[in-house]
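Project standup — Tuesday

K.O.: blocked on the structure for the chain from last sprint. Re-posting the sequence here as requested.
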Amino acid sequence: MKTVFVTGGAGYIGSHATLAMLKAGYDVVVLDNLHNSSCESLKRVEKIAGRELHFIRGDIRDRILLNSIFKEHTFDTVFHFAGLKSLHESVSYPLQYYDNNVHGSQALLQAMMNAGVYKFIFSSSASVYGDPTVIPLSERHPVNQITNPYGRSKLMIEDILVDLAASDPRWRIAILRYFNPVGAHHSGLIGEDSNDIPNNLLPYITQVASGKLPKLQIFGCDYHTHDGTGVRDYIHVVDLADGHVRAFDALEKLSGAHVWNLGTGKGYSVLEIVHAFEEVSGKKIPYYFGSRRTGDVSASYADVTKAKNDLSWEASRGLREMMHDTWRWQQMNPNGYK
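H.V.: unblocked you, prediction finished:
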């Protein structure tokens, strides 16, 4: 049975991907420093999967720890989710983002090379496209208009991966550019657990709906969109996790570095998301408009043709299911994993 190594596996996306790999029959070793996550998520992953995983608490920048992990285990593939992820925070703390995301990835890749492990699936982001010139965004869209250090850190790692693949034909690399993950597992046991005021829209909405926050702040109402609010491609996190399994399977027959968008191909504005959530939950979401945030763009949604053709994958869960699962998670876990 193959064993996979998942960095950041206790986090929102990482926990769902870990569950998907366990359900697909693989053994999983998770490394997470629990900076913005909880090991409770992994206990619940084990409960849903009916299988155990191996958890190690640690940081991907710890080269001694990484080398010891690769000596102790024989891995087929590494899934790399660990990293800081707030594009807005990255504007204020760029050095932290470059250190954690870029330096941490370098340390991980070096440990892989030392151990002779060459299959790698990377959690990248649609933020590498920056302020789009054309939408929907295909993988061929230019990536030189990035508006924040978070996106630049992701592109730096992508460049490293492309260089690695060019240097050694043993590398098999999937670069997965996520759009906007939302939702939760249908059981309500795992989902997105935010510290303090959430950075992402759906957790912010659910905390307003549950009375934890008084109003939703919408950042900007003067974008060049149909209702003035930003438009994004929202994808159910379970669909996103399934995309990782398909990429894992695809790397069995591919070599080199390959880029795929993971989104739905549809864009929804902030106000459309608010109204969809209100319809599903029966809760009124009071909101007010604030200033635009540095690093935000008007609209971004995916062209997912390449993933459909290469991976035989496409998102199957619609907006209502995203809202239902998000609200179920919030109702069952009003304080997150705490």
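K.O.: great, moving the ticket to review. The chain has a mean pLDDT of 95. The longest helix spans residues 94-115.
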